[in-house]
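tool=predict chain=A
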Amino acid sequence: MTSVLDEVVALAARRGFFWPSARDLYSDSPAGFWVYGPLGVAVKRKVVDLWRREIVEPEGGVEIETPSVLPIRVFEASGHLEHFFDRLVECRRCHSRFRADKLLEGGNPSLILEGVPDEELERMLRESGVRCPRCGARDWTGIKKFNLMYTLAVGPEAREPNAALRPETTQGSVVEFKRTLMVSRGKLPFIMAQVGRVFRNEISPRRALIRMREFQQLEIHVFFDPSDTSAYEEKLRPHLDYRLRFLLPDDRETGKITEMTAREALETGYTVNPLITYWLVLYQRFFTETLGFPLERLRYRELVEGEKAHYAKVHWDLEAYCEGVGWVELVNNAYRTDYDLVGHSRVSGVDLSVNSGGRTVVPHLYEPSIGLDRVVLFLLLLGFRRDERRTWLALPRHLAPIDVAVFPLMAKDGLDSEAREIARELSGEFRVFYDEKGSIGRRYRRMDEIGTPACVTVDYQTLEDGTVTVRDRDTMAQVRVPRAGLPRALRRFLAGAPLEEIA
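tool=predict ok
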């Protein structure tokens, strides 16, 4: 039976959201690399723009852009050379390699083995009888550690790796923190932001955009004085009654969600301090109120020892749920303490402490990191609809790749020239698609399938009274709107107004 993930991936490739890189020409192209087509680029751009508008700018963040290649010593200081491993096993018959925990999970989204010790994984593998997905054998090696970084020998004289592709944008921000603070005339707490590509040599990339070897992150890096988070007490005050959704470690088997207000989370010490509490609230609200994710499809899953990244003191994954896919991490929320700055000071010999309120401190770092590709995929997954008549994407209207399509009912009698003129006028404000090929029904269906919220049709009544029809993607209902008032009507509709209120 075809899963919703399979259907969405097929739709995405067919309509131009995303597809595997180079596979049309080279069947042996390595997995884990994906091309974004015109529609995927448009959705991705809208998410990034909203993140900048709703998160970075209101919070006073400064955005920088750092290279994808950094000196190998950066990753010595960050601990990635020592700790950034996955655990693999190898089939003794065909020598194929797989990530051990995912092999045992077998696609079961409720089974999470990330923190299980090596010895236990090996025992489970022996007793489970799991077969090699390639050849069917059940003869496995022991657990081996596999570093996920791509190392490089940069320059003509390099004989061994002296640099690496970054596995996160964080180290670029940490290395450039002190200079950025200075040129920005900033003070603690100081917020840096990055949008960037990162690279991880995944053992077994899978499930489309969920597990990739090259992907994009939207990262916030909050550097702060751990002894003074008073600035966030006032920022948090309006949100104290807001309810956060947590999956606590003791509730993993049942999946029970614990809701607590921001006040309760802070007063019990669960969220450590006002700064972290505020950012947890901010990101849950961003996903529900800005990106349109249903609240019941989101949760913060607390990570425990063995699951947390090597740099994290406290760590929550903001996860989203889709039937047939399970819970998937979309945002890594890590309290990294002073781990990164202390490491770089030690390896580089440069003092990275700063002045805070007349005291010299090594700032702590809190980092919410969005996996942009997974967000794009989940927007399509959660928006996917199918009935006996059609397939459509019920995307939030403001996130659809095309805002409005303009059609002439027939490509003759002046209807086409009138429709082209309307499309030209609207294109100054909206992303517009014009189409006059095929039946009007087929044109509607094509737009439904890519999530276009509104279709404007020029018909013979348009030539008589100057009105056009506006069609709602989700209900297929239509209203007539005067051509002169069309931009305002579309503006209101894309902002969420019901169709009947824009006529």
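The longest helix spans residues 38-56. The radius of gyration is 26 Å.
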